[in-house]
Amino acid sequence: MTGVFAAVDLGASSGRVVTGRLGGGELTLDVVHRFPNEPVRVGVTRNSEGTLHWDILSLYRGVVEGLRKAGPVRSIGIDSWAVDYGLIDSSGALLGNPVHYRDARTDGIAGRVKDLYEVCGLQTLPFNTVYQLLAARETPQYEVAARLLMIPDLLAYWLTGEIGAEYTNASTTGLLDVRTREWSSSLIDELGLRGDLLPPVRHPGSVIGTYRGTPVIAVGSHDTASAVVAVPATGRDFAYISCGTWSLVGLELDRPVLSAASRAANFTNEGGVDSTIRYLRNVMGLWPLQECLREWGSPDLPQLLEAAASEPGLAFVVDLDDPVFMPPGTGAGSTSMEGRLRKLAGLPADAGRATLVRCILDSLALAQRRAVRQARELAGRTVSVVHLVGGGARNELLCQLTADACGLPVLAGPVEATAIGNLLVQARAVGVVDGGLGALRALVRETQRIVRYEPGVSDEAWAAAAARVGR
Ligand code: LFR
């Protein structure tokens, strides 16, 4: 028995609707619609920076158009980046455009709040939903809101009229108890936030409602949770890197690690599909490269990567975890992404773009090495292979550098891991495929292109580079 399913997958720079035919050992994909996701800055006359918003209605239009192009499907699943939300009033109307997690409104807030790790197990990222809510607490919107809906839940609400908070994404808010997997009312009260805004938690695999007669199914609506479902691993001794705008580097565990060392290393315990824990760290990912490309007017990437591959390795490295790289580039002066990178890496003025790209990729591999090593130590696990999934799996230079840096084989692919994880959870929910994560992953392994990269022999150069960035 096979069926066709539609995955809506929203990334930080574009969205797509992907149909997948699954069942009977088959898993084939078709990207039926791609649309841009272009944040909008407004209100620059009120304060110098204004506020960076998601253009949520344009995203919704992309979703609806994509579903139209998808044609008849068994069901629909939606995933997106985490932490961001929309507020709706008691009539169901959206109160303002959701704010982008890279907006500066949360600057400094995390440092003023008590440590939440013991309860929610999350790494402190300045943009966690809890800090966004603390920043928004005084606004009229917050006061009159009836419900908070995370981005995929908001889109699902518009499609079906049903509200809820999908678990994997709710786990990124900072307000969910990592042990009970329910909202932590004591934490919410203690922070003086409104618990009544938070809808009941629903779990991947449950039916949300219908859109024009087609079931909409809760999937791992946090994109990283869906990507981890599609990691084509056998056994347990693997680390994964879900590499796109961010690199999410970590392990799949049965229970959270909440030790002081884990907290100090800023490792997160996010909720995964089938009650797993995604024990990982956010590494800056391809974002600095994407921003440079944008600033350079989108030059030919394959050509640039080829040139970068011929540059001397590890000549210039930066600590990509430095928060200075978090905000979008302005495209001008020293605050451009290129300017920030040049300054921190100490690049000579005549260094060209290929040198800069090599610096970014070496630095990313170095940061990924560090996260894999730390995850392994903090969780007390053996790692014999690194699975690299997502758009980054297309980047051969990055995959090879990651294998070299980690001193481990890298299995790269699938590129569309997030959409595949989304589709698999739907297909299982309607009974077209069955089994646990192991069975779902076997299907990915058997049907998708996966490329193996062997590590180079010497670790010395990487260890020295790590010491140079002080990590
Ligand atoms: C990746 C991702 C990360 C999350 C970041 C912000 O797309 O979802 O997991 O930390 O975006 O939401």
From TrEMBL:
UniProt GO molecular function: transferase activity
InterPro entries named in the record: ATPase_NBD, FGGY_C, FGGY_N, Rhamnulokinase
Gene3D superfamilies: 3.30.420.40
Enzyme Commission no: 2.7.1.-
Pfam family, one: FGGY_C
Keyword Kinase: yes
Domain Carbohydrate kinase FGGY N-terminal: residue ranges: 73-213
Keywords: ATP-binding, Disulfide bond, Kinase, Nucleotide-binding, Rhamnose metabolism, Transferase
Domain Carbohydrate kinase FGGY C-terminal, residue spans: 239-429
Family: Belongs to the FGGY kinase family.
Stated name of the protein: Rhamnulokinase family protein
Organism: Actinoplanes sandaracinus
